[in-house]
Amino acid sequence: MTAKIIDIARDPEGALEAALQVLGEGFPVAIPTETVYGLAADATNAAAIARIYETKGRPRFNPLICHMADLQMAERYGQFDPLSRKLAEAFWPGPLTLILPLVEQSGIHPLATAGLDTVGIRVPKGFAAQLIRHFGRPLAAPSANTSGKVSPTSAAHVAEDLGSKLTLILDGGAAPVGVESTIVRVEDGRIRLLRPGGVSAEEIEAVTGIAVVRPDGPSATIEAPGMLASHYAPGADVRLNAETVEKGEALILFGGQPAAGADRAHAVFDLSPSGDLAEAAANLFDYLKQADSTGATRIAVASIPAHGLGEAINDRLARAAAPRE
Ligand code: TXA
Ligand code: MG
């Protein structure tokens, strides 16, 4: 099997029709979202969800994010408290996932929620939302990569990794955000950050006037089990906060500030020469993959600012550098 790739810009109707057909038959389709490419399947169909896990080689206990066309659709599946609704109204469609109590008998299959009584919901932008509206049911969609690998931000990334296991990949160009959605859970009027992502904690605080509570250490891995330490791992080892470059290493830097010895680097990638964190997030996974494919002995990454989207970037880099199982 080799996946057919349809360019949405060239053939929007053909893309929609082909995707609806595959989804209706209970198979996954790789689709672009503003964050990363997703491996989407009918969230109400057990076999379809099982095929996501099978394609990714993902452990079964991971709950998946369920994507909705809009807030109105989301309310049929998740129970919104006022603060969660406020966040939805402020950031949807967009890169924010809310963990909500699951509506009983909603139709979402327990395989999608890993049997939890909560559900992770997000409304994506653009074509993905349009597809869900036409499909009429939520789409469960983790990132469209083999479990543990770097997330895909282009159709080419997906084709390279999973092309032989899929029938259809929709090409929507480079994912503009480049890192996965921010995951939060509202509890007792507090906003807990379970995964930093495309919406910064500062933006959430500006909208709500409430301080975001960050996870303290590894306990967060129980709540968001997809957040296992060695995630997003390229093949080469990754060394963080590099101040000097060692021979044979590929260097990833930010804001045009090369580390000492950059001239002996195997290859150099600047996430954003102008120092723009949004641009850096959009380039992160692609540059990790490119650095990896240079044949460098290791990937050295210079320090990246910690504020705003830098929190999500540093989170993904820490996982890329974590010891492998
Ligand atoms: O940007 C994104 O969020 C992308 C695109 C495709 O939308 N999707 C994505 O999904 O990153 P995935 O499956 O790779 O990440 C799902 C994360 C995992 O960490 C999972 O544990 C957490 O969401 N999650 C999902 N449902 C949950 C729940 N009910 N409770 C706690 N965590 C949940
Ligand atoms: Mg993923």
Question: Which properties best describe this structure?
Answer:
325 residues; alpha/beta; DHBP synthase; Rossmann fold; nine-stranded mixed sheet; four-stranded parallel sheet; 11 helices; 19% strand; binds threonylcarbamoyladenylate; binds magnesium ion; ATP-binding; ATP binding; DHBP_synth_RibB-like_a/b_dom; nucleotide-binding; tRNA processing
Write a structural description:
It is globular, with a radius of gyration of 19 Å. 30% of the residues lie in helices and 19% in strands. It has helices spanning 12-24, 46-56, 71-74, 82-91, 110-113, 127-135, 155-162, 201-208, 220-223, 277-292, 310-321, and strands at 4-7, 29-31, 38-42, 65-67, 96-101, 118-122, 139-140, 168-171, 182-187, 190-195, 212-213, 237-239, 249-253, 267-270, 298-301. The strands form three sheets. Strands 2-3-7-4-6-5-9-10-11 form a nine-stranded mixed beta sheet, with helices on both faces. A four-stranded parallel beta sheet has the order 12-15-13-14, covered by helices on one side. A two-stranded parallel ribbon has the order 1-8. A hairpin with a 6-residue loop joins strand 2 and strand 3 (38-42). It has 325 residues and is an alpha/beta fold. It folds into two domains: 4-227, DHBP synthase, CATH 3.90.870; 237-321, Rossmann fold. Mean pLDDT is 93; it is low at 218-227. Bound molecules: threonylcarbamoyladenylate and magnesium ion (MG). Residues 142-143, 151 line the site of magnesium ion. Residues 33, 35-36, 38, 62-65, 95, 97, 99, 113, 116, 118-120, 122, 124, 141-143, 180-181, 183, 195, 223-227 line the site of threonylcarbamoyladenylate.
